[in-house]
Amino acid sequence: MPRPSGLPNFTPRADRKTLQLCAQVKDALHWVLGSVSERKDDVLLLCSVEAVEPLPGGNRMLVKIAVPPEVALSKVTDQLAESASALRMEVGQAITRRRVPELLFLPVHPG
């Protein structure tokens, strides 16, 4: 059955693969989140990966980081910015893709 004109060319297989990649990225970040920083006051150890969602364009992902209420979001944002390249490198070693997606981190308080 042909697609009506004006609808995006959506294939379930591409969507499945994107969601699979999101799950791989989430698993990889779960294991390395607190281990990439050299800081003594590493607040990333207290955080967890809440979700990884694809962003438009295909090679970017939004990573939502759950931050405990007692930790300032600005402190987590700073440490994520310092550790972003190391986190991306660790993800690259864990996933099965030629290109590692760009990771955009969003610290959030749960609830």
What's the count of strands? Answer: 3
Structural class based on helices, strands and sheet pairing: alpha+beta
Biggest β-sheet strands, sense, barrel: 3 strands, mixed
**pLDDT averaged residue by residue:** 85
The gyration radius over C-alpha positions equals 16 Å
End-to-end CA span:
44 Å
> Regions with pLDDT < 50 over 5+ consecutive residues?
none
Number of DSSP helices?
Answer: 2
How much of the sequence lies in strands comes to 15-25%
Strand order of the largest sheet: 1-2-3
Order of helices and strands: HEEHE
Describe the global form. Answer: globular
Helix residue percentage = 25-40%
Protein architecture, described:
The chain has 111 residues and is α+β, with helices and mostly antiparallel strands. The protein has helices at 12-32, 73-94; strands at residues 48-54, 60-66, 102-108. A three-stranded mixed beta sheet has the order 1-2-3. Helix 1 packs across helix 2. The protein is globular, with a radius of gyration of 16 Å.
Task: Spell out the key features of this protein.
2 helices
Summary of the model, kept short:
By secondary structure, this protein is α+β, with helices and mostly antiparallel strands. It contains two helices and three strands. The longest helix is centred in the last third of the chain and has 22 residues, at 73-94.
Task: Please write out the topology.
Blueprint: H1 12-32, E1 48-54, E2 60-66, H2 73-94, E3 102-108
Parallel strand pairs: 2-3
Antiparallel strand pairs: 1-2
